[in-house]
Design goal:
The complex is a heterotrimer of chains A (512), B (496) and C (113). Chain B has 16 helices and 15 strands. A 9-stranded mixed β-sheet of chain B has the order 3-6-7-10-1-11-12-13-14. Chain C has 3 helices and 3 strands; from the N terminus they run ααβαββ. The two termini of chain C are 27 Å apart. Classes of the chains: A alpha/beta (512), B alpha+beta (496), C alpha+beta (113).
């Protein structure tokens, strides 16, 4: 049975035209999950029953003429870091195994309100700490382009699900690149909105001042549609922007004509060159050339403090994370490990956190605890927050000269599973190009730029815009997508190898 | 367990105390500090929670505007500066009653700072500097299950998070110096005045017995004339005005005994035991206590506009000392009467009693006499006695009507303390009303005269002062339920 | 946050290192039991990471203000109005153990707060 390769827009059109039903579409994707997820392992939990129930409700609404919007009935996968009422939420960690939240994240509430059936929860690096999804306590996700390779991270499950046609849409979260980098290495589209553009309420925080949920899709306009569903002000998130979401779908449709006349594109000098794979750079340069031909004015900009972004990030993130993760203490929810003897609450906390957290989480908790300790605060966390200011000033200056900034999304294509898992520093380098946007809160998109010559694996281009100008990343992203698809004569994902369907195509159920 | 103590006089001969008070006030907002959960005291366990105050993964805080307003008003009433820009910070430490294992508090940017208030003890004014007042959240409540019923020796604990997230204002004084022997009284007077001030602002219920006002007493002693402060202890759980005074005195005597023997006071948290009147060692304060404060990234800065602050300042109620001067004039109290009333923490009670119809002097008489004696016996504060100002006013009006005399009135208070109902119900149920039946009274007088012929003769001879003995006998027969003046009249009529 | 006495001082050298004892102390602060083997493994790893992030010291001069939030919002409040929360059953739904509608936890060391 062949997968349903239609984009969300195509599915929405088919639903609107009465050519298909949400139940039909949802069932097809559940079948696909059953067939290929044994190999991919994009999902930690599949909610076939719930998804089909929601799909049937959507169909009933449509019959009654009460559609809740364009995406009503189009199914979606949600990263397991989002609280879903009644559905397990583990964040890829043992410490939350079996936890079923009694509430919905605002993003999830928006999805339900807009009528999108939720297929299940996708795999991720434990508490979103990683760039490969290998740090999931429930085993790695495999890249649909090459099952021996990583799908990026931390949102590898969402990207792989979309790339493998297990879901037309997915939700990701991006703290240092966790939406954009998996997009790049799986040949899909990922958007990190402006910080505060999409509510973080119900997103299990990794680093509160960096985290941002966003769309994971196969096309730019699909991302815009999803972004408009999940975006907007949320009174439950104090850092949420109290302004209307820009017209994103309109911007994407406008960009899709491939015309970039008058758009100033800044190539960031510091995000390229040494440390970047040859084939990734080649594809990036071709993309810039295509945009130039389409009328864009290309300038080189310098952001000198970006070289400190990685260090800044690895101080701020662990500090915030060490505090966020303190609540996992075996008292109110989640795992409880009771050591022998007559253990006190403290003993139980220590034993549970030892058993429930993986190595990377422990490393970062220790690092963050250190960075916040008395005697070190000014030298580390305090200093990192100052460098953050400098990074933002670099962005401000660059956006004087350019409407958007571009760079390769990730320095390399997907590496082999296991290759970097015990070398934290090598792993951290994957986020070199994506981190500055999180430090400053600006929006960014990754669109596929082609396959690297060395290994035939996907690479991505990142487009960044000033805060609140999310429409620009959609316009330029859609334009580049159109230009590249014209060159390729089809979508990049069409070049991906077919996956062996090993499942028996029965509807999957429950936690894997 | 009991430590060696030095006599109080010896303490004062050798040392100067430095006092510091940290008061936690629960605000009476309708909802919690960072979420919309109700704050009703005494609700069924875990019925007033949400993802935020339970610290569920993914939940986020949003600041209660009313709590910020209350914090600013408290700051203004304590003559503080109000920050133009400040932030919340996380205080990181693990404790099972703290859902996130960090407390959302304020660190080096409190909303209010650098203020003062003046308290009066025995006619002398003491200026208590206010270091800071900051906003934070309360913790849940643990019940310790086991044979002891206390935390030590408990088998396990049960936690109710209804209280978690209720807004707290922590008010910290600067070190209070130069109080000498009066340190315990100054400590008590400060907390009493703070209560009064908070009540006047209407920002808190300030019920110490319910924990809506909690007090920690910091104390250190330095040898007389020394130019630096001694090592301090922080005594927690000092939850009545009386205990503030007692705990301060106890710690002064305990520190002094340690220092007098050449020992060193341990910098530690002490725990006050109301029942035994002593403190015991709690956690040792050490470098290990590292709260790793950092700005709360889920909240944005609080930057109260100057217009708002000035508007709140203009709307502040009358400050306590001005209010006191006004009341003293209105009530016609002497300085001493006013001081005693304030010192007993009875200003509000007296005012309410007067408002309910009693005269100022009778209101003061009951609260500072009979009721103060009973509170003292039970070792509780007057306000916690359970007698309402309106009841006191009613008792007095029964006296004024001639239904009760003072002795009977005291029995009505017995009934009130035992929860037997309203004063009128108690009078009826206990049969306390004065007997105005002239026949019964006349018979009792006759009995008394017959039983004491020698006394009767003296009165007949014009020694009227001897009537007292006969009045006593009549009152005894009438079991107190007679008007002594009428009895006197009858005796003189019959023997005149 | 501005400099404070509590946070003053700090590492003087440009090449900070965390000793094995310090790692044990951090683990204690973070309430994580670490085995001897884990301590041995973690200390050098943390040092490698620290060495790479130490470059940040001296990058920003004293007059650069810190950024704690990407966007400069202030004064975000909610009205003091009740909002529906969880039922006791929902609140306790994830509890490892419960008793008398309360979360049952092992014995607690130290005094009541």
């Amino acid at each position: 049975m062949s997968p349903d390769k239609r984009t969300a827009v195509e599915l929405a059109d088919a639903l609107a035209a009465g050519e298909t039903t949400s139940v039909e579409i949802t069932r097809a994707h559940l079948d696909r999950i059953a067939a290929v997820d044994g190999d991919i392992h994009a999902f930690l939990h599949v909610d076939a029953e719930g998804a089909l129930r929601d799909a049937a409700a959507s169909d009933a609404r449509r019959v009654a003429g009460e559609s809740r919007g364009v995406l009503d009935g189009v199914p979606i996968a949600v990263k397991d870091v989002m609280a879903t009422r009644g559905l397990p939420t583990t964040c890829g960690s043992r410490i939350l195994e079996g936890w079923i939240p009694p509430y919905d994240a605002t993003v999830v509430a928006h999805l339900r309100r807009a009528g999108l059936p939720i297929l299940g929860k996708t795999n991720m690096d434990e508490f979103a700490m990683g760039s490969s999804t290998e740090h999931s306590a429930y085993g790695p996700t495999h890249n649909p382009w090459d099952l021996d390779r990583i799908p990026g991270g931390s949102g590898g499950g969402s990207a792989a699900a979309v790339a493998a046609y297990e879901a037309p849409l997915a939700i990701g979260t991006d703290t240092g690149g966790s939406i954009r980098q998996p997009g790049a290495v799986t040949g899909t589209v990922g958007v990190k909105p402006t910080y505060g553009g999409v509510s973080r309420y119900g997103l299990v925080a990794l680093a509160n001042s960096l985290d941002q949920p966003g769309p994971v899709t196969r096309t730019v306009v699909d991302a815009a549609l999803l972004h408009e569903v999940i975006g907007g002000h949320d009174p439950l998130d104090s850092t949420s922007i109290d302004q209307p979401v820009p017209a994103l779908v309109e911007a994407a449709r406008r960009g899709a004509d491939g015309d970039l006349t008058g758009v100033r594109i800044g190539v960031v000098r510091e995000l390229g060159g040494e440390g970047y794979q040859g084939g990734v750079l080649t594809r990036f340069e071709e993309s810039v050339e295509l945009m130039t031909k389409a009328g864009a004015e290309v300038v080189e900009v310098s952001c000198p403090h970006f070289v400190h972004a990685l260090a800044t990030y690895y101080l701020i993130l662990p500090a915030e994370a060490s505090s966020n993760l303190a609540r996992f203490d075996a008292m109110r929810y989640g795992l409880r490990v009771t050591p022998d003897g007559d253990p006190s609450a403290e003993d139980v906390m220590r034993a549970t956190r030892e058993a429930g957290f993986g190595d990377e989480v422990k490393r970062r908790i220790m690092l963050g605890t250190y960075a916040l300790s008395s005697g070190y605060y000014d030298a580390y966390y305090g200093q990192a927050q100052k460098v953050r200011t400098l990074v933002s000033r670099d962005f401000d200056a660059a956006f004087q000269d350019a409407d958007v900034l571009v760079s390769p999304t990730a320095p390399t294509t997907a590496f082999k599973i296991g290759e970097k898992v015990d070398d934290p520093l090598a792993m951290y380098l994957n986020d070199l190009a994506t981190i500055p946007a999180n430090l400053s809160g600006v929006p960014g998109i990754s669109v596929p730029s082609g396959l690297a010559d060395e290994d035939g694996l996907p690479a991505g281009v990142q487009i960044l815009a000033p805060a609140m100008a999310d429409d620009r990343v959609y316009r330029v992203g859609a334009a580049l997508e159109t230009l590249l698809v014209r060159e390729w004569g089809g979508r990049l994902l069409d070049q991906a190898p077919a996956l062996p369907a090993v499942g028996d195509a029965e509807t999957p159920e429950g936690v894997r | 367990m009991t430590a060696t103590l030095l006599s109080y006089d010896d303490v004062l001969a050798q040392f100067d105390p430095a006092l510091g008070l940290e008061v936690h006030v629960e605000l009476n907002t309708a909802t919690k500090m960072f979420c919309g959960c109700p704050t009703v005291f005494g609700a069924e366990p875990n019925t007033q929670t949400c993802p935020t105050c339970l610290g569920l993964p993914g939940s986020m805080p949003v600041v209660n505007a009313k709590a910020v307003e209350s914090a600013i008003r408290i700051g203004l009433a304590l003559n503080c500066q109000i920050a133009e820009w400040c932030r919340f910070a996380r205080k990181n430490y693990f404790y099972p009653d703290m859902p996130k294992n960090f407390q959302t508090s304020q660190y080096d940017e409190p909303i209010a700072f650098d203020g003062y208030t003046e308290v009066e003890v025995d006619g002398e004014l003491y200026r208590v500097g206010i270091e800071r007042a900051h906003m934070e959240e309360d913790t849940g409540k643990s019940t310790h299950i086991g044979t002891t019923g206390r935390i030590h020796g408990a088998d396990y604990s049960l936690v109710d998070y209804n209280r978690a997230g209720i807004p707290l204002i922590e008010i910290v004084t600067k070190p209070v110096l130069g109080t000498g022997a009066k340190a315990p009284e100054v400590a008590r007077a400060y907390v009493a005045q703070l209560r009064e001030l908070l009540l006047g602002l209407g920002v808190s219920d300030v019920r110490m017995e319910q924990g809506s006002l909690r007090c920690d007493v910091n104390l250190s002693l330095a040898p007389k004339g020394a130019d630096r402060l001694g090592i301090r202890t922080e005594t927690k759980n000092v939850n009545s005005l009386r205990s503030v005074e007692r705990a301060t005195r106890y710690e002064m005597q305990r520190h002094a005994a340690v220092l007098a023997e050449g020992g060193k006071v341990l910098q530690e948290t002490r725990h006050w035991h109301e029942d035994t009147g002593i403190t015991t060692s709690g956690r040792e304060k050490s470098d290990a206590e590292d709260y790793r404060y950092f700005p709360e990234p889920d909240l944005v800065p609080v930057a109260p506009s100057r217009d708002w602050v000035e508007q709140l300042r203009a709307e502040l109620p009358e400050p306590p000392h001005e209010k006191r001067a006004r009341l003293q004039a209105e009530w016609g109290f002497s300085d001493l009467e006013m001081r005693d009333t304030a010192g007993a923490g009875a200003l509000g009670l007296v005012a309410e009693t007067i408002a309910a119809g009693a005269s100022p002097q009778t209101a003061r008489k009951w609260w500072l006499g009979e009721l103060a004696r009973r509170a003292n016996e039970s070792e509780i504060d007057l306000g916690s006695l359970g007698v309402a100002p309106a009841d006191v006013a009613r008792v007095q009006s029964l006296v004024d009507e001639g239904t009760l005399n003072d002795k009977l009135a005291r029995q009505v208070f017995d009934g009130l303390l035992d929860g037997e109902g309203t004063p009128d119900e108690i009078v009826a149920a206990r049969g306390l009303a004065i007997v105005s039946d002239e026949g019964a009274l006349s018979a009792a007088v006759d009995h008394a005269i017959a039983a004491h012929p020698d006394v009767a003769d003296k009165i007949r001879d014009g020694k009227v002062a001897a009537a007292g003995a006969l009045i006593g006998a009549v009152m005894k027969e009438m079991r107190g339920q007679a008007d002594a003046n009428r009895v006197r009249e009858l005796i003189l009529e019959k023997l005149g | 946050m501005p400099e404070t006495s509590e946070h003053a001082g700090g590492p003087a050298s440009d090449h900070p290192t965390i000793s094995r004892d310090e790692v044990a102390h951090l683990a204690d602060l973070a309430r994580i039991d670490l085995s001897e083997a884990e301590l041995d493994h973690l200390a050098p790893q943390l040092n490698v990471i620290l060495e790479s992030i130490a470059s940040i010291q001296g990058v920003a001069s004293a007059d650069v203000p810190p950024t704690s939030h990407p966007l400069p919002l202030t004064n975000v409040y909610r009205d003091d109005v009740e909002r529906p929360g969880l039922t006791a059953a929902e609140a306790l739904s994830g509890a490892p153990e419960e008793e008398q509608q309360r979360f049952k936890v092992p014995r607690i060391l130290g005094y009541d707060q």
